[in-house]
Amino acid sequence: MAQDFGPEDRHLFETIASELYRQVIQMGSIDASDPAIIEHDQVASACKLLVDIGLLVLDAATSRYYPLDPAAVQSQIVVPLGRRGTELLDESAKWADTFSSLSHLYRQSAVRERPIVELRGKERINKFIQAALADCRQELLTAQPRGRRPEKVLAEAVHRDLSVLDKGVSMRTLYQHAARHSPATREYVVQVSARGAEVRTLDEFFNRLIVMDRRMAIIPGEDGDRTAVAIHERSLVSYLVDIFERSWERARPFTNNEAQVHRDIATDIRNMTIRMLVEGHSDPASAKRLGISTRTYAAYIAALKEEYAVQTRFQLGYAMGRGEVEQPAEPLDA
């Protein structure tokens, strides 16, 4: 029984060999020249496997196979397999450690040679972020613009972010107010907040940003989600951190459900809607700045028209221009 047994042997053991063993148990023994064995290749292979394992033993005097207790044999098969599994896990961990060390060396070398690195393609961007997060040791700052993030993206993000938090890294994340109306985002916030992360929301639009240990920042490239730029230049990273901190101070805690906070958020959304309207931005551009759909933005404008008893946007703009904008009795609802 010193030989190795693989997946094919196990499959044969689970099927034909197990059935043959049951038959031998029922009969007490089976003749080595039984046609059921010698005339069928698969059954013959199953019989050989049972002999190799030690569940059948051949009595030379009678030329018959007799069954043995599986409990007496199991440890001789399973324990070596478990030991090999442990050895393989240990070996794979050592390989992973070496790869990690070399990856860290590569990134450090890239930092010295190229303070700004362009990344192209979602797969490459995601792999770069994943590797960089593995090196994050103290602080993670992220800004996620727009409202609802896809559930698939959030599912991947929560696993990644919880791994970072479990290392003792502090994490702060900014969303737009509209994200509060996304069930998937609320669930994500509950999970990361339970591990110590802080999440706040802001009225204004901002670009996506990731800052790790205040040493590296990742921002979108000129092609949107298809490109990204990794910044290692300390002065630029400090500038981006300052922008984040200013926005963080103005933002409102995601998990605060007090009535006053909801009123303040409604006021923020209302004021931002008015600002977009007065500045003459298009509906798509305004909706993007608010992190909402164009349909929702149109509903905001309709609510303002009704509030000021006007029919057109021109009339609404005129009323606002005359200083007639007051706090609404009912807040705008996203």
Order of helices and strands: HEHHEEHEHEHEHEEEEHEHHHH
- How would you characterize the largest beta sheet? 8 strands, mixed
State the separation between the terminal residues, measured CA to CA.
70 Å
Radius of gyration: 33 Å
What is the CATH top level name of the largest domain? Alpha Beta
User: Might you state the CATH topology name of the largest domain?
Assistant: Endonuclease, Chain A
Strand order of the largest sheet: 4-10-9-8-5-6-7-11
| Spatial shape | elongated
What would you say the CATH architecture of the largest domain is?
2-Layer Sandwich
Strand content: 15-25%
Q: Give me the oligomer status.
A: single chain
Fold blueprint:
Elements lengths: L6 H21 L2 E2 L3 H4 L2 H13 L2 E4 L4 E4 L2 H44 L2 E5 L1 H14 L3 E6 L6 H15 L4 E7 L6 H12 L3 E5 L6 E4 L3 E6 L2 E8 L2 H17 L1 E2 L5 H20 L4 H8 L3 H14 L5 H9 L13
Helix pairs in contact: 1-3, 6-7, 10-11
Describe it:
The chain is 57% helix and 16% strand. The protein has 334 residues and is α+β, with helices and mostly antiparallel strands. It has an eight-stranded mixed β-sheet, sandwiched between helices. The radius of gyration is 33 Å and the shape is elongated. The protein has helices at residues 7-27, 35-38, 41-53, 70-113, 122-135, 151-165, 183-194, 234-250, 259-278, 283-290, 294-307, 313-321; strands at 30-31, 56-59, 64-67, 116-120, 139-144, 170-176, 198-202, 209-212, 216-221, 224-231, 252-253. Helix 1 packs across helix 3 and helix 10 crosses helix 11 (294-307). It folds into three domains: 7-68, Arc Repressor Mutant, subunit A (Orthogonal Bundle), CATH 1.10.10; 114-253, 2-Layer Sandwich (Endonuclease, Chain A), CATH 3.30.870; 259-321, Arc Repressor Mutant, subunit A (Orthogonal Bundle), CATH 1.10.10. The model is unreliable at 325-331 (pLDDT under 50). It is built from twelve helices and eleven strands.
